Model the fold of this input.
Amino acid sequence: MASDGPTRADHTRWSLLSAPGSGRGGDGALQLDSGMPLNLSSRHAHLSLMSPSREGCSVRDRRFDRPGWSGAGAVIAEWGLDRAEATQRGTHPWQTRSSTSSTRKQQSIMGPVLVVPYVSRWTEEAKSGQQETKTTVRYCSFLPEDLEVSGKIDSEVRYRGIFGVPVYRLTLQVKGRFLQPDFTDWGIAAADILWDRAEMWVRISDARAIQNQAALSWNGAAVPFAPGLGDFGGAGSGIHVPLKGRMTGRGYEFSFPLILNGSVGAYFAPLGRGTTVTLASNWNSPSFQGNWLPTDRRVRPDGFDATWVISSLGRNYPQRWTSETNMTKEMEESRFGVDLFTSIDVYRLSERSVKYESLFLILTFLTLWMFEAIENQRIHSLQYLLVGAAMCLFYLLLLSLSEHTGFLIAYLLASTGVIGLITAYCAAVLKGVGRAALVGGIVAALYSYLYILLNNEDYALLIGSVGLFLILAAVMYLTRKMDWYETGVPSSGIVR
Done:
């Protein structure tokens, strides 16, 4: 069927004889395959292809596409950096466990608990129809009326390869008072109470780390501890004292020293009706954990002091119970204590820095794109990608260097190297040292901004919000005269 106008193929069969700005003068010429010339009267004129379905549809400036494709490649590289950082971070806990598995673990001290067994009696109907009396030995657990723990944590950092872990020597002095056990509420006859089989146990998460031959002072008499939790302490690690012949009187004063090795942290359980724990250490970056924070604490450059004062009213278990009720889980859940926190954790800082990578790529690509749009520079997609690869490499350099030199030195080395690389490359791409210096200055400002964010965690959101506002304001100002419908051509001439 005949057509009154040119076909779609006719509009696409153009051959470029002289492009604008090609060096053949101010005008360029285009001609059809048939030889019909088409003159372009202006250097900045745009070629329009007319079609029956849509008139005035101009050839799109493809400058938007280049940062997009390059950004996609850079995001893939960023994903690889995340995997590398996660793998290296995963190696650190393994090395920590390896370096502390032999003698030092996180210590948890739960006790002391006084246990007094008794004979439980009940009747059952025998096969003969007669009533038979059955007996078994059960026990009651009693917690101290008062419990005071004072301790000193002497810490140091030990290394397994390049990985450091805080270890400590914990010196404790434990003292308190038990009331005489009262069985009347349970209806247990005095004759059924087995006072000679009474024990006191202390649960310790890793009893292998005990460094002294601990002895209990019980109403002024010294009684040595024995390993394990005894007959009634259940499964677990710890020490106990048999109290045969020592359960006389209306109350029992006790005290004992305990020296333990450990790592990472130390925890306690508030078993007294009133519990007071006081700790002093030479570690200057404690992280207080658990259900109770210290009532009083002081953190100094050379260590810390902390005191917990806890009432039994804040717990969810009583001062005494029978063996028919197991309170071990509740006691473990009520722990509190302190971790020897590493304030400068290169893996944590590296992980936080990687989270800003996408933003930095966007801002850097935006800077290059503005040179294209405003200064009429030509930058290839591969050149965008190479600049993005250099910025991604910064984070890998930062992580690997910080394991050996510390975070600050690693940050300076990695950022200086990447800024120099990008500046030198842009000098060739943008054909001007001044333009390259501007790009390098912007990248340097971004890395300075990032370092401030990483070292001001409490104000990171505020600093980040203000910084993004200023960046957006600068972009809006620089592109205020740009005609976005004809990218790169201002509404009233070239952007000044």
The chain has a mean pLDDT of 79. The radius of gyration is 38 Å. The CA atoms of residues 20 and 96 lie 66 Å apart.
